[in-house]
């Protein structure tokens, strides 16, 4: 009995550690609700260890036996809710509640059946198998396929298989004639030892999934310009890299660089609040007018860039003219009614196998030409016949 009690104690402590870990994740994550539900899963399920430890010494073994069963199943039900929230595959509360109540009723009905028999083992373990399979199906239905999700899926499938295997183990190893005999049975040692390994493995996998999502969110946030909502310089370049690698020998696309004309005067004359509104409205205009496959970024200050994949120079020029005309006619909050803000554009076709920095240099020269010619213009860069890669990459841009 001492070995099983020790394992129950270990499982209880491990569950509390995971509960605290998920609460920390909830505090650090913008979407902490799933982590809170999963923390609740570990807390509630761990109560079964207390009930099973007290059961042999209690005058009411039936009460503690049913409570141990119900606490584990309730914990797994909370896990299904938490996973559903995280993977955006919500569960129907009425269905989950009905499943839980029906399972507890079945456990009550089979309580007096002889332990270690197929009838008792099957009906006792089947609810645990079903709820773990239900949890695993949440990940499958979400269609998320990264390595952390696949690892968690495998462990949930393994957990479901574990409860099926426990049907045979309860018969082969012997789980005691009564519920009070369980703690001193060979089956208890096997069950608690394997259970501890699955608790640790599954808990770590779920933590891995959530921590990875937090890191991905933080990385995405670091690539987004807070004022414009567009990619910042780093995000823009990183989004273009895979697109340019896949371009092959065909038409890679076109690059548009644009500056807001006399932007410093806007800040000086009407205040930085008005300048910020100009940035927001121009960014919104870019999102509205550019194709869905395009990538836009605010490179710094009043300078923006748009990459148009599989677009030739003439099409990019037409788009740039459309954005220019729309900006010139836009009324912006914080500016006088007759005040207008214009933009200048430099357009360059990206040549096959051309490094991004060379295309940026050509578009930047075209942009300077537009400004020198009076601003509120679109100028196109000449397309080179041959590309000579620079020895030292240089990324031109103003902030």
Keywords:
five-stranded mixed beta sheet, 399 residues, alpha+beta, disordered C terminus
How would you characterize this protein structure?
The chain starts with a helix and ends in a 19-residue tail after the last strand. 64% of the residues lie in helices and 8% in strands. The chain contains twelve helices and five strands. It has a five-stranded mixed sheet with strand order 2-3-1-4-5, sandwiched between helices. It has 399 residues and is α+β, with helices and mostly antiparallel strands. The relative contact order is 0.08. The chain has helices at 2-28, 33-54, 61-87, 93-109, 118-142, 147-174, 186-222, 233-245, 263-270, 272-289, 313-328, 356-372; strands at residues 253-260, 295-300, 303-309, 343-350, 378-380. It is elongated.
Give a concise summary:
With 399 residues, this protein is an alpha+beta fold. It is built from 12 helices and 5 strands.
Layout of strands and helices, then pairs:
Elements: H1 2-28, H2 33-54, H3 61-87, H4 93-109, H5 118-142, H6 147-174, H7 186-222, H8 233-245, E1 253-260, H9 263-270, H10 272-289, E2 295-300, E3 303-309, H11 313-328, E4 343-350, H12 356-372, E5 378-380
Parallel strand pairs: 4-5
Antiparallel strand pairs: 1-3, 1-4, 2-3
Helix pairs in contact: 1-2, 1-7, 2-3, 3-4, 3-5, 5-6, 6-7, 9-10, 10-11
């Amino acid at each position: 009995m001492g070995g099983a009690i020790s394992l129950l104690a270990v499982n209880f402590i491990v569950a509390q550690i995971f509960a605290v870990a998920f609460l920390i994740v909830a505090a650090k994550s913008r979407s902490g609700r799933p982590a809170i539900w999963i923390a609740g899963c570990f807390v509630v399920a761990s109560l079964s260890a207390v009930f099973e430890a007290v059961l042999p010494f209690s005058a009411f073994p039936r009460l503690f036996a049913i409570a141990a069963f119900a606490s584990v199943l309730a914990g797994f039900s909370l896990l299904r809710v938490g996973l559903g929230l995280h993977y955006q595959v919500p569960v129907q509360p009425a269905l989950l509640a009905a499943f839980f109540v029906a399972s507890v009723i079945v456990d009550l009905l089979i309580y007096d059946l002889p332990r270690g028999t197929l009838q008792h083992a099957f009906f006792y373990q089947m609810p645990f198998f079903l709820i773990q399979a239900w949890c695993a199906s949440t990940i499958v239905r979400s269609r998320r396929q990264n390595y952390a999700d696949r690892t968690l899926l495998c462990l949930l499938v393994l957990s479901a298989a574990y409860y099926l295997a426990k049907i045979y183990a309860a018969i082969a190893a012997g789980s005691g004639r009564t519920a009070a005999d369980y703690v001193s049975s060979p089956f208890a040692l096997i069950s608690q030892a394997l259970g501890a390994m699955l608790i640790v493995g599954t808990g770590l996998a779920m933590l891995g999934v959530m921590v990875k999502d937090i890191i991905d969110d933080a990385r995405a946030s670091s690539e987004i310009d807070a004022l414009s909502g567009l990619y910042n310089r780093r995000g823009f370049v990183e989004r273009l890299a895979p697109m340019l690698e896949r371009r092959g020998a065909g038409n890679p696309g076109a690059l548009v660089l644009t500056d807001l004309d006399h932007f410093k005067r806007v800040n000086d004359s009407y205040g930085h609040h008005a300048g910020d509104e100009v940035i927001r409205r121009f960014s919104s205009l870019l999102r509205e007018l550019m194709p869905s496959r395009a990538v836009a970024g605010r490179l710094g200050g009043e300078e923006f860039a748009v990459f148009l994949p599989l677009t030739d120079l003439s099409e990019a020029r037409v788009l740039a003219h459309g954005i220019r005309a729309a900006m010139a006619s836009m009324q912006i909050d914080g500016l006088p009614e007759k005040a207008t803000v214009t933009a200048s554009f430099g357009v360059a076709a990206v040549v096959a196998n051309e490094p991004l920095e060379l295309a940026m240099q050509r578009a930047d020269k075209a942009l300077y030409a537009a400004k020198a010619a009076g601003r509120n213009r679109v100028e196109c860069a000449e397309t080179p016949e041959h590309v000579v890669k620079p020895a030292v990459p240089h990324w031109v841009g103003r902030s």
